[in-house]
């Protein structure tokens, strides 16, 4: 396989999170600022070295403008592509393109939200779809419930299997001191949780938390001169065919079936090489859909795949080792936290939940209602 | 009246038909493709769209029941026999099996008319 010229050209050299869980009294931008300052310090660069800015939030219509003003930056390149929670996997690709083209030298990818303490509900800037409004869908959950209903009818997927996803996430969260939802959780508790939108219960839904995250990227030649252990960009790709769930051609197959293989092709790897899969688990059905669409198991077998603790601590495939959106953090857009966990695992920085030999991580972001799908592959120096 | 002859976009046209009690969908003259929801071009790129009366029969593709303190209602995706999908609801019942056959009717609500569906009895068992 010929190597894609972008493979390994950039690296994440700094990373920080802020306000994970609850951060009362802080605005979304204040939390974002804390994460950015933390990432800059972690990278061993100065804030004013940043000349590329990539941002998306649920509370800023012009996110890069707000970020550069708040942080006092004067970037030469910026991109505020907003494809929901998958924005940040796409930003890694855009930052790599800009860095490789010499349009900037130090790129900041950042996000911040105070959705929990500001109101406790998922906030979205998205406009209602006029052809959906008369039927009063409660997005995002209605869309994911429709997909779950179809997956169950088509493949025999069960609520018990959905519960296995939530159970695995809690298992990982219990190894992560930063995770917001920790403590014992039984399958019976998950199955008896309040039904919100059949077949999804409260236990099938992600958290609503506060939280911010930021990463710093530079070209790989420069990364070697910085103090930290670089985590290399190996590949990324996006795929997007629809906006509204009614326009999704097949509710049991997401565009991850296209973004995943393209990202892996750029990285020159396949599923069996991956040590860690960070999958955007806004709802339990997501993890099952993405395990199938990314090729970790055949279509329709995701439910069987997650049984028996296979994606839980000690299982065969490490999935969402921070506890995921279901038990760790979900401030509205979760995509950048997939990346920060992958970076921390590859660096070997995560204590009790550390995987042995974590060299290759796949981060899969999801945006909208199973709409935008973006996959990014990160690796240690050993993978170059 | 003069205002009635002025051209309006596909959304407004659909809503005007609905207000007249007609469930109309678009079809491309050149390719025969049906389109829903209404727009100015088909996914294949045909822009010569005309309005035709929907047959009104279809199949439940996916369904959920939203449950709140203020009540429950189902939201369904219906595949019309023309081959297009729409979001709708089956207001007469709590829920229905995926694959059930349904028939459209226009229901008037506080927010205006909308297309909803009922189970076709002979197929309901």
From TrEMBL, chain A:
It comes from the Bacteria. Residues 239-379 form the Thiolase C-terminal domain. InterPro entries: Thiolase (IPR002155), Thiolase-like (IPR016039), Thiolase_C_2 (IPR055140). This is Thiolase. It holds the Pfam family Thiolase_C_1. It comes from Aurantiacibacter atlanticus. One of its GO terms (molecular function) is acetyl-CoA C-acyltransferase activity.
Automatic annotation (TrEMBL), chain B:
InterPro entries: ChsH2_C, NA-bd_OB-fold, Thioester_dehydratase-like. Residues 51-106 form the ChsH2 C-terminal OB-fold domain. SUPFAM superfamilies: Nucleic acid-binding proteins. It comes from the Bacteria. Pfam families: OB_ChsH2_C (PF01796). This is ChsH2 C-terminal OB-fold domain-containing protein. It comes from Aurantiacibacter atlanticus.
